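Re: [ENG-882] Designed sequences occasionally contain unexpected residues at chain ends

Forwarding the minimal case from QA. Structure tokens:
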């Protein structure tokens, strides 16, 4: 295993630990993957993150091949399908964060309540229709919800956040949870949320092109 691959494997593990520390995931319910050569490196299923070693990660090829002694995450299918179909996606973080999942359970997309909704790539964070975990149907639903988007909710399930790096995918997962919490707080007032118009979200999207991750910390507008 080369130094670059080892570093990526270690980053995936540290990201798993970090998403639990940040409160956007619980136990081993989420999973993380990153593009590596003609496939992805992904966390194995059902193993506590704090016991993972770099060698435990599984490599899945776009051609159906597999390397590793452990079983990949039960959600390997949508990780592989999304990465294979989207050249812009270098990493995926999947969480079951509480506020975003609460909205997903009710099949409630997140509208433009805040300009940071634009991090989704559009004026809303969509919800993919429910399908049993680990199935091709779930993967297909997620791919559709992610058309022109960087993230989506999964009905009765959780969140998918993509990124051009593992760090960016994790940042996006945290941001989705923040926006979801804000939306639920607004709804708790009993008042209709005031939304930003689509043209404003488009302006924000253009301005955000100049922002990004530097030294693994996100600069936001």
């Amino acid at each position: 295993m080369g130094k670059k691959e080892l570093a990526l494997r270690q980053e995936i593990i540290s990201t798993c630990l970090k998403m639990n520390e940040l409160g956007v995931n619980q136990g081993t319910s989420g999973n993380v993957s990153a593009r590596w050569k003609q496939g992805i490196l992904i966390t194995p299923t059902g193993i506590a993150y704090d016991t993972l070693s770099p060698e435990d990660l599984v490599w899945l090829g776009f051609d159906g091949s597999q390397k590793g002694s452990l079983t990949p995450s039960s959600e390997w299918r949508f990780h592989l399908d999304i990465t294979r179909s989207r050249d812009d996606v270098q990493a995926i973080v999947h969480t079951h964060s509480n506020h975003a999942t609460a909205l997903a359970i009710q099949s409630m997309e997140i509208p433009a309540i805040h300009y940071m909704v634009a991090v989704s790539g559009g004026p809303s964070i969509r919800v993919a229709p429910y399908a049993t975990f680990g199935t091709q149907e779930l993967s297909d639903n997620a791919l559709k919800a992610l058309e022109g988007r960087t993230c989506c909710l999964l009905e009765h399930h959780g969140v998918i956040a993509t990124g051009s790096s593992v760090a960016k995918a994790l940042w996006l997962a945290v941001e989705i949870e923040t926006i979801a919490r804000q939306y639920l707080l607004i709804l708790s007032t009993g008042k209709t949320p005031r939304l930003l118009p689509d043209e404003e979200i488009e302006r924000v999207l253009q301005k955000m092109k100049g922002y990004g991750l530097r030294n693994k910390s996100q600069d936001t507008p």
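QA comment: On inspection the terminal residues look reasonable. The chain has one domain: 3-211. Proposing we downgrade this to a documentation issue.
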